[in-house]
Amino acid sequence: MPIHSKTCRTIFVCLAALLPGGAGAEGIDTEHLFGFMLGSDIGTVGEREFQSQTTGRFARNGGNYRAVGQELELEFVPVENFRVELGSSFASHYIRGVPGLEDRRQLAWEGLSVDLRYRLLDRDAAPFGFTVALETHANRIDETSAAVVRSYGTGLTLAFDRELIPNVAVAAFNLFYQPEWTRFIGSGAAEQESTVGAAFALMVQARPGLFLGGEARYLRQYEGIGLQELAGQALFVGPTAYFQLSPRSRLTAAWSIQAWGRPAGSNAALDLVNFERHQARLIFGVNF
Fold first, then answer.
1. Are 171 and 18 in contact (CB under 8 A)?
2. Where are the domains of the chain?
């Protein structure tokens, strides 16, 4: 099912905001500035970081739904323009009376992940920054249902950003594709799905070390990894805040609410079958 022309126009407007029109970036580091999106900065050679990322997803179609993921990550930059991130995650689920999902209350180790990023354009030498990110994960707990599975997925993200006002305001644009292969242990059932989307963010430095702004993400979920059949779509919007706690530590907080959505074959105003009503993220990082 093709993306509506209105959506295409929105994507092109976002891209236009990143086209040449002034000086390159000076001083704003976008590596960890956003909550649900990626910036093009990747750090300096030899840099090492520990990061804790907590993601909460709340409210689905009927009943009570709460899923909280906790990921612990090590990041390092072995060579110029290339960053490696290794992660391990845990998942907590509370599900009661949600149609299509079994009732569960559990905390379990979820899986492992590897995130590779390569910066193709540096804002210091180009009109905008551009980084390609490839994240691969292997999970033993299904992210949505909390069932025991063997799940393998990857995420390809194209991250663009540009400083609109030097040292004051920066805009970012992401395009992403996330295929997933899942086999449910016990039943032997298998499924494939994929998510594609675009996201836009604007962050403004309110004072040194404090950035405030927001992110908007448009997501489309498909059955199959080849985008064969649309399952649903949703638009998430919400605020983001970044705090530089010290020269070596930082904190990013973001919250998104589903402002619009629609499951395939429905006229509903929200898609609470494939997506949650609320999503929140808290990221703490420290250099060592």
1. yes
2. 5-40+123-287
Q: How far is CA 181 from CA 86, 150, 173, 190, in A?
A: 21, 8, 27, 8
Q: Provide the residue type at 16 as one letter.
A: A
CB 147 within 8 A of CB 139: no
Give the tens place of pLDDT for each residue, 68-127: 999 999 999 999 999 999 999 999 999 999 999 999 999 999 999 999 999 999 998 999
SS (H, E, C) the chain: CCCCHHHHHHHHHHHHCCCCCCCCCCCCCCCCCCCCCCCCCCCCCCCEEEEEEEEEEECCCCCEEEEEEEEEEEEEEEECCEEEEEEEEEEEEEEECCCCCCCEEEEEEEEEEEEEEEEEECCCCCCCEEEEEEEEEEEEECCCCCCEEEEEEEEEEEEEEEEEECCCEEEEEEEEEEEEEEEECCCCCEEEEEEEEEEEEEEEEEECCEEEEEEEEEEEEEECCCCCEEEEEEEEEEEEEEEECCCCEEEEEEEEEEEEEEECCCCCCCCCCCCCCEEEEEEEEEEC
The answer to whether the Cα torsion of 160, 164, 166, 172 is positive or negative is negative
Q: How far apart are CA 177 and CA 1, in angstroms?
A: 16
